[in-house]
Amino acid sequence: MNRWAITLVIMLAVLASFVWMLARRSAWPTTAAQPSTSNPSVAVQVALTAPTAGATLILPTSLAPTVYPPPTLTPGSSRTRLPTSLPPPTRTPEATDTPLPPTPPAASNDIIAIQEVILRAYHLRAVAARTFDTSQFHTVYTNDPQTRLVPEYEAFVQATAVPLVGPRMPVVASPPGALDYFRAYFAYGQLGAERLQQRQRGTPVSAREGPVGPGPRDDPISAPPSLDFKGIWVFDARAEAVVDSPSVLERYYLVKTPDGWRISRQDVLKAHF
């Protein structure tokens, strides 16, 4: 008997054994398990129909399929449109859940004064971008110890600007505020413009020792600036305003000082590119 005949005999024997086991299993009696009275956790049972013999198979709850509640739809997983309105003011730099009152009437003296100081700040920044003159920034900005800047702005003033342009600036508050930040920002820009001119004249200038460029802007200033005041909220001596310009959507934080309203923080909400 050759090797192929032996292999065929072995396969037939395995097949016959498998058929015999199936026949014996279908002849087994099926009994229903009795619920346990000593363990309430497995007393509940689930009946399943066995498709082969029509018998009923009883499984404990621990083996039964788990039924989960339907998922809760959210705006991200349903057809509900997401809100497109602006986020509400935070009242302070830290977000809160406190409900805020509606925008006061536009005729309010505080509303008019806040609009004027924001418009003036916009104009003074435009002038500084072309001349680096920050001598009037104190008329629109202030260092308010209760209104901290974002960490990136504080780090720029303390770790980047002050070591390089500290002598060009008045004494910086601790922690630095909005007035310090904008003074430092344009002083740093002036240093970069001066070093760019040195390089253009042929003097070696290393970017590792300070900024190099860009130069001042030379385009004309648009007057008056095109600002859209989305909302102004006044809370006694503090206020917030959401303002849209052709370049950015910003939130302003203001504080009322003896000299009038001053900007204590200015955050970009969205850039228009």
Which percent bin holds the helix content?
25-40%
- How many strands in all? 6
Task: Compute the separation of the termini in Å.
Answer: 86 Å
Measured by DSSP, the beta-strand proportion falls in 15-25%
Instruction: Report the sheet with the most strands, covering strand number, pairing sense and barrel closure.
Output: 4 strands, antiparallel
Class from helix and strand fractions: alpha+beta
| Mean residue pLDDT | 76
Cross-sheet strand order for the largest sheet: 3-4-5-6
Radius of gyration (Å): 38 Å
**Low-confidence spans: pLDDT under 50, at least 5 residues?**
30-57, 73-85, 94-99
- Strand-and-helix sequence, N→C? HEEHHHEEEE
**Silhouette:** elongated
By DSSP (H or I, 4+ residues per run), the number of helices equals 4
Task: Describe the protein's architecture and organization.
This protein has 273 residues and is of the alpha+beta class. It has a domain at 109-223. It is 31% helix and 17% strand. It is built from four helices and six strands; from the N terminus they run H-E-E-H-H-H-E-E-E-E. Strands 3-4-5-6 form a four-stranded antiparallel beta sheet. A two-stranded antiparallel ribbon has the order 1-2. A hairpin with a 2-residue loop joins strand 5 (248-257) and strand 6 (260-271). Helix 3 packs across helix 4 (178-200). It is elongated, with a radius of gyration of 38 Å. Residues 30-57, 73-85 and 94-99 have low confidence and may be disordered.
